[in-house]
Amino acid sequence: MGNPANTIPTVDLSVFLRSDGDEAAKQVAKEIISRACGEYGFFQVVSHGIPLELMSRAMDLCKTFFGLPDEEKLKSRTRAGSPVPAGYGKQPDQSADKNEYLLMLPPNNCNNVLPNNPPGFRAALEDIFTHFSKTGEVIESIINDYLGLPPNFLKEYNNDRSWDWMNVKHYFPATETENVGISSHKDGNAITFVFQDEVGGLEVLWNGQWIPIVPSKGTLVVNVGDVIQVLTNEKLKSALHRVTRPKGRSRYSISFFYNLQGDKLVEPFPHFTTQIGEPPKYKGFLYKDYQALRIKNKINPPYKEIGIDYFAI
Ligand SMILES: O=C(O)CCC(=O)C(=O)O
Ligand SMILES: [Fe+2]
């Protein structure tokens, strides 16, 4: 496949957002997504329904927020006892990852600690969160259909949006000796969306090489996470990816994690096991247990996320 840069396929989602969307065009888009998921675990979407003005305003406000003095940012630091690191934080010094972040749960969640400064930031975050959540439902339904699951099967299984989160990050410029923004990992959730600024640095492992996902205005990067890998008994795989930091400039991104409600049992669906005579590749587990394990190991030694192999049979 020619030049490895910019080979992650891009799909126009507008056909799925209109009630009169052309069925043949939907089919073409589904096939592109299905091939991209099989080959890379990643694809990109445009015309996804999130207003471009909101995306660029949210990104500008993120840059302003992270440029504020620590004292101001720390007003939004994670509250003691919060079950997830909602609010502002910096990766621990011992971590290979070099970024500071602001993590939010759905608007109105009591664990949110959202900044009042800069003005309009909080409203923009809440607005974009709500849009991401809808885009998540659209992608989930496309995945449902091309997997051949009964209509709305994934939607009914994953019917509670209260555990979704969004993470806004500022990656510091690389130094002479290191450039890790986020070390190579797979996402633990169901579906991830990333809106990266123009700087670049997100890379996916494909056939043993790291391929850059070249930023493009208004484009969202989408990838499936460990939950989809387990539910489909590896028919779809969660891909390894990482962020490298360029020298001399900061990088910003907004990632949305379409998760599961914590009490959901995650185990391979019968459609991909008993119904086709395949043994399950994973033991069942509660989503909240996997999430807690990942968070615990990320913010304490070994400062790395635990992978889904933990539950492999
Ligand atoms: O910042 C990015 O481009 C991606 C971040 C990422 O992979 C993650 O937060 O899991
Ligand atoms: Fe990730």
From TrEMBL:
<dbReference type="InterPro" id="IPR005123">
    <property type="entry name" value="Oxoglu/Fe-dep_dioxygenase_dom"/>
</dbReference>
<protein>
    <recommendedName>
        <fullName>Fe2OG dioxygenase domain-containing protein</fullName>
    </recommendedName>
</protein>
<dbReference type="InterPro" id="IPR026992">
    <property type="entry name" value="DIOX_N"/>
</dbReference>
<feature type="domain" description="Fe2OG dioxygenase">
    <location>
        <begin position="162"/>
        <end position="260"/>
    </location>
</feature>
<dbReference type="Pfam" id="PF14226">
    <property type="entry name" value="DIOX_N"/>
</dbReference>
<dbReference type="Pfam" id="PF03171">
    <property type="entry name" value="2OG-FeII_Oxy"/>
</dbReference>
<keyword id="KW-0560">Oxidoreductase</keyword>
<dbReference type="InterPro" id="IPR050231">
    <property type="entry name" value="Iron_ascorbate_oxido_reductase"/>
</dbReference>
<keyword id="KW-0408">Iron</keyword>
<dbReference type="InterPro" id="IPR044861">
    <property type="entry name" value="IPNS-like_FE2OG_OXY"/>
</dbReference>
<keyword id="KW-0479">Metal-binding</keyword>
<comment type="similarity">
    <text>Belongs to the iron/ascorbate-dependent oxidoreductase family.</text>
</comment>
<dbReference type="InterPro" id="IPR027443">
    <property type="entry name" value="IPNS-like_sf"/>
</dbReference>
